[in-house]
Amino acid sequence: EQFIRQEYWTIDADLTQKSQPFSAKLSRLNDVKVEQFTITNEDQAMAAERDLISAANGQLVVSKVEKKQRKRNPAAPLITSTLQQEAARKLGFSTRKTMQIAQQLYEGVDLGSGPVGLITYMRTDSVHLADEAVTELREVITERYGKDNLPDAPRTFKTKSKNAQEAHEAIRPTSARIVPLEIKQHLSPDQNKLYDLIWKRTVACQMIHATLNTVAIDFACGDKSTFRATGSSVHHAGFMAVYLESKDDETAGSDKDEKLLPPMEEGDIIPLIAIRPEQHFTEPPPRYTEASLVKALEEHGIGRPSTYASIISTLLNREYAELENKRFFPTDIGKIVNNFLTNHFTDYVDYDFTARLEDELDEISRGEKEWVPVMKKFWDPFNALVHDKDESVSREEVIQARELGTDPKSGKPISVRMGRFGPYVQIGTKD
């Protein structure tokens, strides 16, 4: 809400080679590297366009061609947080819905001869896979996708969470041989979607890396300016043939936006169709989705696999935030609660405090600490602070009453306040 937009311009060259149109982005202008805010208004953009058109004289020359191969490794098998994130991005599921359906798959679905548990326990932060599961996955990969998609050795992944409960495995199918398509008729549409996602992610994590061909081509525009085009193509799909991890707010530089370029060599003369200036404005950081909020909770050490969904439900049920177009927006009530807690209970809404207390609770659960001293260390100062604020902070300060003026009939002050059911106007005081 406090974000101030900034104007900037980009300049692209529309080109064609062997009847294939493509574009290149201005990377150097008059021997100066082009950054985001190199060109910040229309006058500068139009002047640059004139200079470039004059220097190009209808054509650009290929000055450099860089070809590389790069490998892309599969993502780790799913844990609670990544399951919730992927289900939100790929399937549009809320965190609560994801956990409800995962619970059904875990408890068992009747496949014709009684209930069968289809996935392992879904509240976990461990990426470990049992040896027998890995062996079966490698057999299934060989049978379904060929030996050239199987790495020489099984892949192992390291759990990021320092308090992960390694007794649990990652979320995986109980048997990789239970293929989603073959049991589709026994599952509800949502169960099938989630099981399909879990099965594919688990199989992909044990497959060979993907190999991508990348190319970057520089085009000289006269002696002092350069345009650059980048492209990529899949040399060997590997795990990407089965599953590709999603990301939040993918930008124009992501893999999916890179295009195939026509073959070119240094010295080639490329016909110029147009120089195209384009105006842009900076965007504020995107508001949280359920997926990105779960990721942020995990990164800050807030909550545990079993509590991510309930944290989000509490925000919505208490109307501290609301979802619009799958993005969280704070409500007026939420802003008041946040301001009050930030101003008066600063230490207790600090990320580090929450993460530290979570760590201590984990230590208690492992028998490494006694619970009474930990709770006493928290409760005594917290209880004292609550009593202090109860006496020293007025109700008007809490609800952030704002005076609008005076009622002409009664002469009493008119104020707007935030109540339980939203804002309201009050004439006079409570007394």
TrEMBL record:
List the molecular function annotations (GO) for this entry: DNA binding; DNA topoisomerase type I (single strand cut, ATP-independent) activity
From which residue to which does the signal peptide run? Answer: none
Topo IA-type catalytic domain sequence ranges: 1-386
Q: What PROSITE patterns does UniProt report for this protein, alphabetically? A: TOPO_IA_1, TOPO_IA_2
Look up keyword Cell membrane and say if it applies: no
**Keywords on this record?**
DNA-binding, Isomerase, Topoisomerase
Q: Which Pfam families match?
A: Topoisom_bac, Toprim_C_rpt
Spans annotated as Disordered: 151-170
Output the NCBIfam families linked to this UniProt entry: topA_bact (TIGR01051)
Question: Could you tell me what this protein is called?
Answer: Topo IA-type catalytic domain-containing protein
Q: Which species is this UniProt entry from?
A: Cyprideis torosa
Q: What is the lineage of its organism?
A: Eukaryota, Metazoa, Ecdysozoa, Arthropoda, Crustacea
